Amino acid sequence: MPHRKIVEDYYGDINNLADLLSKLVNSYRLLIGGAGELNGIALAHKKDVKDALKRVNELGDIIDDIIDVLDKSSYSYMDYCKLKAQIVESKIQVEYIETEIGEELELQNDKK
Question: How confident is the model at residue 112 (pLDDT cuts 50, 70, 90)?
Answer without folding.
Answer: low
